[in-house]
Amino acid sequence: MYLNHFKKRRRQVFSILCMTLVFCLTSTNHLTAQTPPNIVVIVSDDQGYRDLGCFGSQEVITPHLDRLAKEGAKLTNFYVTWPACTPSRGSLLTGRYPQRNGVYDMIRNEAPDYGYQYKPAEYEATFERIGGMDVREKLLPRLLKQAGYVSGIYGKWDLGVHKRFLPLARGFDDFYGFTNTGIDYFTHERYGVPSMFRNNQATEQDKGTYCTDLFQREAVRFLKENHQKPFFLYLPFNAPHGASSLDPRIRGGAQAPAKYKKMYPHLKDNLITRKKAGRYEFREKPKGPVITQVVSANKRRLEYVASITCMDAAIGNVLDLLDQYKIADNTIVVFFSDNGGGGGSDNSPLTGKKGMMFEGGIRVPCLVRYPKKIKPGTVNEQLLTSLELVPTFLKEAQIPLPEDIVFDGYDMLPTLTTQVESPRKEMYWQRRADKAARVGNWKWVESVKGNGLFDLSKDVSEKHDLSKSHPEKLKEMKAHFANWKKEMAKADPRGPFRDY
């Protein structure tokens, strides 16, 4: 009798334990399913369309970025919103056209272009020092906070130097990097002005250390400290941007460590002597012939490609950590260049380069890896832009788009996961008097560097101007652009450029 009671009681306890275990496993799976994805956005600076192995280069060594392409999607028809740094970066963090978020030109000083070094008191009153993105704009890290994300940025900020403009005031929790458009890779100075910050304080603590190594160090630290919670890691390198140095022997190109330059023995590490000073060389010289040493074309290419390979190695360390912590499957990794390639780059088969409205200035290489949803080895040729990033990330984080903000982008994940048609049908650009529009496969350019109407489905290199043979299409494209301009003019005005 007692034995039968004991057996019955044991079965009841066993049943309860099994039910508890099932509940715990179900709850754990539910929590895992609801865990928002981590987000890693890696941005290179002035990298050419072809300057990755996975985009066709037979010269540039990029094994880790090539791995990213094999494990995710390669976007061949991806655009940024402006052909140079500052406005492009403002858009990728807001999901809004530069003309809508207010940063539709560069926040920089031009006097150093002509060899002038600001005195400290002068620099404090320059636009590069006092300009910044309108404080009413809500950037991605602030929007992600409501889902519990921790956010860090390590590298190039470029949206203002005053404390109210710096990353910590815009939603980031941690910042180490430089605040303006370019620096010397070793001294961290911009035309002689120290430019590295840790959070809200300027710092020269790491002066002399190659900056890509520093940005890698900080990104690794961030991942070690935050890999157990949802995070947004923004890693905007300055490579392979030219060094912003007043010394013409440096300024003509990027800078790279000797270790990586040795990987390109076919390129010469030499300077050349020139008797005539160019725009970016010293002007305050005695009268008479100017003799100066400048970077050769060979050296410019060498520093450029070696800086990319060094950056690629840093990216590899970040990817390895995601694997080590077993969070790669639930992490969206996006890589692209902030604009078209500059000096030393290869933008083929595109025409144009940084600063231009032709494809070489605004179409950039882009890679997206999200193992949980994106099939590896995908090549996506549909029209997509950096404006799509913020809506995509918010959708995956299950954060509704704020109703008081007009976004110019779309959730692009369905296009990347199922190859459904991109919701993006048109795109517009304006840089001062330069204009461009893309509607479907048609592209119109009106600029100081050239004009034309092109059918990109047949002529991605923009070699054949169809303006005369298709006058109605030209008229239609200009009308589309005019309508976009009206929409931007109606937008709630934002500083720092707009008069209101």
How many structural units, i.e. domains?
1
- % residues in beta strands: 15-25%
Rounded Rg: 25 Å
Q: Distance between termini? A: 92 Å
Number of helices: 15
CATH class: Alpha Beta
CATH architecture: 3-Layer(aba) Sandwich
Kindly identify the CATH topology: Alkaline Phosphatase, subunit A
Low-confidence stretches: 16-33
**Strand ordering within the main sheet:** 9-8-5-4-10-1-13-14-2-15
- In CATH terms, the superfamily is Alkaline Phosphatase, subunit A
What share of the residues lie within helices?
A: 25-40%
* Computed structural class: alpha/beta
Shape: globular
What does this structure look like?
- The chain is globular.
- It has helices at 2-34, 63-71, 85-94, 98-101, 120-123, 127-130, 140-144, 211-226, 248-251, 258-261, 297-324, 359-362, 389-396, 413-418, 471-490; strands spanning 38-44, 73-75, 78-79, 150-156, 174-178, 189-190, 193-194, 196-198, 201-202, 231-236, 271-274, 292-295, 331-337, 366-369, 378-380, 384-385, 426-431, 434-439, 442-447, 450-455.
- 32% of the residues lie in helices and 17% in strands.
Keywords summarizing the entry:
15 helices; 500 residues; Alkaline Phosphatase, subunit A; globular; alpha/beta
Summarize the structure in short.
It is built from 15 helices and 20 strands. With 500 residues, the protein is an alpha/beta fold. The longest helix is centred in the N-terminal third of the chain and has 33 residues, at 2-34.
Set out the fold topology.
Elements: H1 2-34, E1 38-44, H2 63-71, E2 73-75, E3 78-79, H3 85-94, H4 98-101, H5 120-123, H6 127-130, H7 140-144, E4 150-156, E5 174-178, E6 189-190, E7 193-194, E8 196-198, E9 201-202, H8 211-226, E10 231-236, H9 248-251, H10 258-261, E11 271-274, E12 292-295, H11 297-324, E13 331-337, H12 359-362, E14 366-369, E15 378-380, E16 384-385, H13 389-396, H14 413-418, E17 426-431, E18 434-439, E19 442-447, E20 450-455, H15 471-490
Helix pairs in contact: 8-11
